[in-house]
């Protein structure tokens, strides 16, 4: 008896699927898809689906977390927003962190003491991004390109660091390697405000968003450290992407300020 009843119910269900009433949601969806496929281009535009049942785009949680993190500090003068590719290392294992997740994870601030961020990439990764960005620059120069222009510069700079008079912060003086002249806005004191670390398990690299204050300041005394930067710089609208190779040396200086 039980078996017969189940069999009857299954048949009823299958029958309902074959002959849905005209006002059922599934039937409406099928009809809409059919109409959209058969309609002229102008009508297809009108038949596009809404963003959601509430007519708003669903919220992307990570995007909101990052946006809120930046928004809290937007009123600060001389604010630098910097995103770096790298790897988030677990201090205990000395390996890249591993979480049971398949998507990006924004790490909480109290987890920061257990990790360190290494902003390094392999030569292969550097070459990959270089080729990808170079291709985009070439595309942007085409008369058929619909996006905004992308500019490219190959910069070779020398950063010299000096002790600041305010606490443990340092003043950075940047000079052009070829002319030996200080570049425009090349003397600044960089103060860290906050970091946000994002683990990306589906890619080879994680990333960190850093907020810093870059205040113009003239240094004093002798340089403490020299850093040579070979930088490929790509600029598009408000975004600047730098691929930088760095070599550092200590107890060397180019300028002495008094």
TrEMBL record:
It holds the Pfam family mRNA_triPase. GO terms for molecular function: mRNA 5'-triphosphate monophosphatase activity; polynucleotide 5'-phosphatase activity. It catalyses: a 5'-end triphospho-ribonucleoside in mRNA + H2O = a 5'-end diphospho-ribonucleoside in mRNA + phosphate + H(+). InterPro entries: Cet1/Ctl1, CYTH-like_dom_sf, mRNA_triPase_Cet1, mRNA_triPase_Cet1_sf. First step of mRNA capping. Converts the 5'-triphosphate end of a nascent mRNA chain into a diphosphate end. Its cofactor is Mg(2+). It is an enzyme of class 3 (hydrolase). Heterodimer. The mRNA-capping enzyme is composed of two separate chains alpha and beta, respectively a mRNA guanylyltransferase and an mRNA 5'-triphosphate monophosphatase. This is mRNA-capping enzyme subunit beta. Residues 24-33 have a biased composition (Polar residues). The keyword Hydrolase applies. Its EC number is 3.6.1.74. One of its GO terms (biological process) is 7-methylguanosine mRNA capping. It is found in: Nucleus. CDD domains: CYTH-like_mRNA_RTPase. Its main location: nucleus. GO terms for cellular component: mRNA capping enzyme complex. Belongs to the fungal TPase family. Residues 1-39 are annotated as: Disordered. The keyword Nucleus applies.
